[in-house]
Write a structure and sequence with these properties.
Elements (H helix, E strand, L loop, with lengths): L1 H22 L6 H8 L5 E4 L5 E7 L6 E5 L10 H7 L4 E5 L17 H14 L5 E7 H12 L4 E9 L12 H6 L14 H11 L8 H11 L4 H9 L8 H5 L5 E6 L8 H9 L3 E6 L6 H4 L1 H14 L14 H4 L9
Parallel strand pairs: 3-4, 3-5, 5-6, 6-7, 7-8
Antiparallel strand pairs: 1-2, 2-4
């Protein structure tokens, strides 16, 4: 009996060691991450509250402005396909939201809708931009419509891409990583044990065609999640209640709106697209039968052309007034590029 117990203890210890060796992932060196993901035209933009955000500001200075907001556990890189196309004719602003990417944790650990929305306002103020179209995917869409409510005089247009926040929009198949992160028992462990395989599975569960997800995409999501403080920020963010939008709130957003959605999105069902489109007064909707939760990554060429067409249709492809001549690279302190 005693011998059997010893073997059981040894087996348990071996199991713990194997799991730890497989899943333990320490924080990545921030300098190495900046070299990998913060090269030109990235800068670190200082905000009045002490936050520094990893930002890219591209395109003609006098062109109409688009502000692109990424989703949960993502980064500004999710918009790369769109930015490469749009920067020919638009000034394209995108940044890692607090708790994500190279921006790192929010300076006050505040991950409320107001905090995210105010950060967007502060970014645009620092860049001298007072009128723009705000575009958001997933959590970024939640930030975008909250921003349109809080700063109606600044938002000339609203684009929701598989956006969070519609009532009665529970996931039909929540990715494993999201489920574990929300667990009271497992969530805290993910701050130390975050295997690449878990991230890979979660990313593949968000798209319609898992085979199209590249190793580079998975590495980017995983590595930036391991930026110091981001996993703890994810834990804190998951504890913040997300109050769903109301029909009355949406009725108060009078700017033209475009709702873009992947019909195969299992994280936020396409019924949410219908709710947003039905309740936003000046809305259009575009549904993609073959795409999932991140259409701008899954099919950037096709989806950006639909965005361009809508911007033209509603007259948002023309400058709305004098724009600042200051680029992000002029706003950031000398020597404060993200790649240094």
């Amino acid at each position: 009996m005693l011998k059997a117990l010893k073997w059981l203890v040894l087996l348990l210890i071996l199991t713990v060691v194997v799991i730890a060796a497989w899943g333990y992932a320490p924080d990545r060196d921030p300098e190495e991450l900046r070299k990998a993901y913060g090269g030109p035209p990235s800068v670190m933009l200082p905000l009045p509250d002490g936050q520094k955000v990893h930002l890219r500001d591209e395109g003609p200075r006098q062109a109409p402005v688009l502000l692109l907001l990424h989703g949960s556990s993502s980064s500004l890189h999710t918009w790369q396909g769109w930015a490469d196309d749009l920067k020919r004719d638009y000034r394209v602003i995108r940044y890692d939201q607090p708790g994500h990417g190279l921006t790192g944790p929010q300076v006050k650990d505040d991950y409320s809708a107001k905090s995210f929305s105010d950060t967007a306002a502060a970014v645009m103020e620092q860049l001298g931009i007072d009128r723009y179209v705000v575009v958001g995917n997933s959590m970024g869409g939640w930030v975008a419509w909250n921003h349109a409510l809080a700063y109606p005089d600044r938002v000339s247009g609203l684009v929701l891409v598989d956006a969070a926040g519609a009532p009665d929009s529970a996931p039909t198949n929540l990715p494993l990583g999201f489920r574990l992160a929300q667990s009271e028992w497992v969530g805290p462990m993910l701050q130390y044990f975050t295997p690449r395989t878990l991230v890979a599975r979660s990313v593949r569960q968000t798209v319609a065609n898992p085979d199209a997800v590249s190793d580079a995409q998975i590495d980017r999501y995983w590595n930036l999640l391991l930026y110091p403080g981001n996993r703890h920020a994810t834990r804190l963010r998951n504890k913040v209640p997300r109050v769903p939008a109301t029909a009355a709130q949406m009725a108060g957003i009078t700017a033209p709106a475009l709702v873009m959605w992947g019909a195969k999105d299992t994280l936020i069902p396409v019924s949410a697209a219908d709710w947003f489109a039905d309740n936003l007064p000046q809305s259009s909707r575009t549904i993609y039968p073959d795409l999932g939760h991140i259409p701008m990554e899954e099919a950037p060429e096709r989806t950006v052309q639909d965005l361009r067409q809508w911007l033209s249709d509603v007259g948002l492809n023309q400058p709305t007034g004098p724009a600042s001549d200051g680029a992000a690279s002029q706003t950031a302190p000398a020597g404060d590029s993200a790649s240094e």
